[in-house]
Design brief:
heterodimer, A: 415 residues, alpha/beta, three-stranded antiparallel β-sheet, 11 helices, 31% helix, B: 278 residues, Rossmann fold, ten-stranded mixed β-sheet, 10 strands, P-loop_NTPase (chain B), Elongator complex protein 6 (chain B)
Chain lengths: 415, 278
């Protein structure tokens, strides 16, 4: 029936409507080859501009840009975010990561947290309704860049801008439909409405005491349930589903019994996760947050946890008093004052090869982060704001002293 | 070619003399993977160039990796022009996977390819016997008299993650394996938290194992980050030091000398090694 010859040429938007094919009927091949040429990626993923491996967004644009030029978290790798102090900035990074997964319809597995945690995810921001609005926003940002922040503009152009450009060719072939958004904007004041068959799985620790005050047996690994859940879920889901694993607040005493920090439990668990990540290199990504005050970086256990992760970032927030003092000094309208510093200890893929040392990743730069309601977490190079009365000091210095017909500046005399 | 085997490192990467132990240490951010790949390359490829050697003089390699899977090694060896699968088919290379199944419970048998074995039991005897198995497989392939280079990548994971293994037992296992192989290359972590602050069992065991291995080693290559912070064109520092008992041994000393070099690993996996100030 489908092979019946029809005399009608079906109008096709495909390539070459001006060249009628000799057979006088629509040739199905051009359309299908075009479709085959565009590789179909699962939603929320795109190939890395460096080596083509699939990446997914962490839900934070500036964090995506940091990850060694891959413009996203490479699937099959893990990221450990450590945080010193009593704040929970890492927790909000994790929430963006999970929220991005919910929006992209990925399957999410959260270890240890109760289901109520899922209702606190940030909702989609209003500026997310199209790429047009985003472009305007970028333009606005550029207008506000002062001379002092020119380097920051460069930073954005090489990393953020590059990522945007790369995004366009991908979306052009499907120009009729809305271009796929890789990373959404979230608004912290809104709450994400979860789809009714929720795609988030909350897996408790298997040794978690169920409202009984009997201590669980310390010889049993509390992670077996999670691993079991993961392996069955990965085997039974179609190969195009992306799974996001989230492990919030590792070793937090509110969630974890004390014996979890026994190396013979946690290290095999992380090793198994690493094995699973490598086994499903196109379907799985992992984000762990670890509060540092309870397990400082100077301990061997924390170092092993770091060694078993592919990427290690450390957030060190400023004391709250320092942040309050900053805005008075100088904050342009668009720039939030930095709330802390970011240290990169290891990045996925690059460091595994033995590399390091920059390469457009911002390694070695002083990086700061700020968290705001609308823009989410923004990581950018740290620079001190211009000091008030800076101009006068400069003028004075410029005048200098005239000694023997030669201009001698203050600095010269002192040396 | 400079990107394949760095010229300055050539004397260190060539096949070590019989019964020797080479220790490579890494820290977070300065991994030894590129160095291991170059050991593989020089053992498997450089012999090809002088293929007038009789086949029983060729070097064979057994690679045991506890932190990385075969796909990683395959992909990065390919960038060096080294086809590990081809060598595995020729029975010159064998891989023991200590990542995929070590702690995974109830894994169904996956199709095991030639020259690839998956460890499923973290017990020392199981690990040791599987490595011995791979060595014997290679030995059985073509007559006796060939040299087998054994490379073990991060056996310290066993020490950290499996409770009852002590540093002496693990050391004994290495000693036993050295009897089977021509030479042994081991990579270990030497991060400061693992070696200096010896407060927990994990730390003392690691430090004890690392130190005892370092004392046995004929030479060690220590990788660390640049002391002065990150730089755009330097990935880290490689320091080569010769073991104590070998200092009197003229044979080895003629071949290698103690030195400290800088290295840079590019995004494509190519490595440049250079002196300070070059």
């Amino acid at each position: 029936m489908s092979f019946r010859k029809r005399g009608i040429v079906v109008p096709q938007a495909g390539p070459g409507p001006g060249s009628p094919n000799p057979l006088g009927r629509p040739n199905p091949i051009p359309g299908s080859t075009a479709a085959a040429a565009i590789p179909k990626h699962p939603p929320g993923t795109r190939p890395s501009p460096l080596d083509g491996r699939l990446t997914t967004s962490t839900g934070t644009r500036s964090l995506d840009a940091l990850l060694a030029g891959h413009a996203g978290l490479a699937l099959g790798t893990s990221l450990l975010i450590e945080e010193s102090g009593t704040t929970d900035f890492a927790g909000s990074l994790l929430k963006y990561y999970v929220a991005e997964g919910v929006v992209q319809k990925h399957t999410i597995h959260v270890l240890g947290m109760p289901e109520g945690w899922g209702r606190e995810l940030p909702g989609l921001g209003s500026g997310d309704d199209g790429s047009k609005g985003k472009k305007v926003k970028v333009g606005e940002e550029k207008m506000n860049i002062a001379w002092r922040y020119e380097r920051l503009g460069e930073f954005g152009a090489t990393i953020g801008g590059g990522a945007r450009e790369r995004n366009f060719p991908q979306s052009t072939p499907t120009s009729s439909s809305e271009p796929a958004i890789f990373c959404h904007d979230f608004d912290l004041s809104k709450r994400l409405i979860l789809p009714s068959p929720s795609n988030i799985h909350f897996i408790p620790l298997s040794a978690q005491p169920t409202l009984t005050f009997i201590d669980s047996s310390p010889s049993l690994s509390p992670f077996t349930k999670f691993i079991h859940h993961l392996t069955t879920n990965l085997q039974n889901s179609p190969p195009t589903t992306i799974h996001r694993l989230a492990i919030p607040n590792l070793f937090s005493p509110a969630l974890y019994p004390s014996h979890t920090s026994n190396p013979t439990h946690i290290l095999p668990f992380l090793h198994t996760l690493r094995a699973l990540l490598r086994k499903y290199p196109t379907r799985l990504a992992l984000l762990i947050t670890l509060p540092l005050p309870l397990s400082p970086r100077s301990t061997g256990l924390t170092r092993w946890i770091e060694l078993l992760s592919d990427g290690v970032l450390e957030l060190s927030p400023f004391p709250s008093s320092a942040i309050v003092a900053k805005p008075a000094a100088a904050s342009t309208v668009s720039e939030e004052p930095p709330q802390g510093m970011v240290n990169i200890h290891r990045l996925p893929v690059v460091h595994e090869k033995g590399g390091g040392g920059g390469g457009g990743s911002g390694m070695g730069d002083d990086l700061s982060f700020s968290l705001s309601r609308r823009r989410g977490m923004v990581i950018r190079p740290y620079s001190l704001p211009p000091v008030k009365g800076d101009g006068e000091a400069k003028e004075e210095e410029g005048r200098g002293l005239e000694v023997g017909g030669r201009r001698v500046r203050k600095g010269d005399i002192e040396f | 070619m400079s990107s394949r085997i760095p010229h300055l490192l050539e004397p260190y990467l060539s096949l070590p003399p019989e019964a020797s132990l080479v220790l490579l240490t890494s820290v977070l951010g300065a991994s030894t993977n590129w160095l291991v790949l170059r050991f593989l390359h020089s053992a498997l490829i450089n012999n090809d160039a002088s293929s007038d050697l009789p086949p029983d003089e060729q070097t064979k390699v057994v690679l045991v990796s506890f932190m990385r899977d075969f796909a990683f090694w395959k992909e990065n060896a390919k960038r060096l022009g080294l086809d590990l699968e081809k060598h595995a088919a020729k029975k010159r290379f064998s891989f023991v996977d200590g990542l995929s199944g070590l702690f995974l419970p109830s894994q169904q048998k996956t199709s095991v390819k030639t020259g690839e074995q998956v460890l499923t039991n973290p017990g020392l005897s199981a690990v040791s016997s599987m490595i011995q198995n791979s060595i014997n497989n290679l030995k059985a392939a073509a007559g006796s008299g060939e040299k087998i280079l054994l490379i073990i990548d991060q056996p310290d994971l066993l020490l950290a993650a499996v409770g009852e293994i002590g540093p002496t037992n693990l050391g004994d296992m290495l000693l036993g394996l050295r009897e089977e192989a021509h030479a042994l290359v081991v990579t270990l972590s030497a991060d400061q938290p693992l070696t200096l602050t010896q407060q927990t069992c994990l730390e003392t065991d690691h430090a004890a194992f690392l130190l005892s291995t370092a004392h046995q080693a004929d030479f060690t290559m220590n990788l660390r980050l640049l002391d002065s912070g990150t730089a755009r064109d330097v990935s880290g520092v490689v320091r080569v030091s010769i073991g104590e008992q070998e200092l009197e041994n003229d044979n080895l000393q003629k071949r290698i000398e103690e030195r400290e070099l800088l290295y840079f690993v590019g995004g494509d996996g190519g490595v440049k090694v250079f002196e300070r100030g070059q």
